[in-house]
Fold this sequence. Notes:
The chain has five helices and 24 strands. The chain has helices spanning 2-39, 78-81, 115-122, 181-184, 267-270; strands spanning 42-54, 60-62, 69-77, 89-95, 101-102, 106-110, 127-132, 135-142, 144-151, 154-158, 162-170, 174-179, 190-191, 195-200, 204-209, 217-219, 222-244, 252-255, 258-266, 279-283, 293-294, 297-300, 306-310, 315-319. Strands 11, 15, 17, 19, 20, 22 and 23 form a seven-stranded mixed β-sheet that branches. A four-stranded mixed β-sheet has the order 4-1-3-7. It is elongated, with a radius of gyration of 41 Å. The chain starts with a helix and ends with a strand.
Amino acid sequence: MRMNSKNKSNIFGTLKKQNVKRFSIFIAIAFIFLIFSKLSSDYKQPLKLKVSLDNIEEEIILQQDSSNVIDVLVEAKGFVLLPYIFNNYKTIVIDSKTNMTTKPAHYVFDVQKHKYLIQGQLGSSYTLLSISPDTLILPYSKRASKHIPIVLNTDIEYKTGFDIKGEFRLNVDSVKIVGPEDKIENVNSIATKELKLAKVSGAIDKDIEIDKIKDIEVFPKIINVKADVKRFTEGTIEIPVTITNKPEGITINYFPKTVTVMYYVDLDSYSSISANDFKVECSFNGVDKEQTYFIPKITKSPNFIKRVNIKQKRIDFIKL
């Protein structure tokens, strides 16, 4: 009999606990529905729109103060406004070239004229109820600027038998430097970071940073470098010697009449080389009275060959 009473007590206790759990779950669900209902309702909320300018010139520095804020009153669902409970600032981006009027020391933004633009950046979840001020003035200061040439800094090791064909190609040949007038006036060129490559046997296509200069900004900060790398070979060719600036009345005989020109060229161009591509001259200008030899010089050669030189270092002559 006592066992039956004990069993009944355990059963009642279990049921009581289950009822408490069910009631708690019911309360939680009811609370969630209440919050969901509240957040689904429309609310009015004041917002401060901080204006950020896009597409401004590198020389311009905007004065960051309270003048670049637009006050608006919007209506939206509670879900949408939830992020602005503790901070009611939102950033909008305005193009300085198309949406602003540029004055010598400030930008002018016609707020009322561009309400559609502001509404578009807020999004369709917001209804714009009011906006102020009618016009926004954004003061700025302007730094000095000028363009200077780029000096490419390289340390490139080519694989045996390979070399660069032509020159390095930069996507820009100069950069704009911006800063105080007294800082930039004596800067006439700027180097890149070192482009260091090893065992190169194929085309070069690399982005490389421009060196930094204290108190000066550089635009762009990264440039692209390209170059064609080809297999090269050495070649030789016999070229006749031409005597120039010979005084009237003087007859000479000289030897040798031809010289061997050695050159370094890419394989693709090797077969196109001919003697007509070169010219070797010996000039009487600068020859001393007792001197009996010329120093031959190459005065014409193809622009795509490398390391061209003459095997014979002097041309002997006698006056007849």
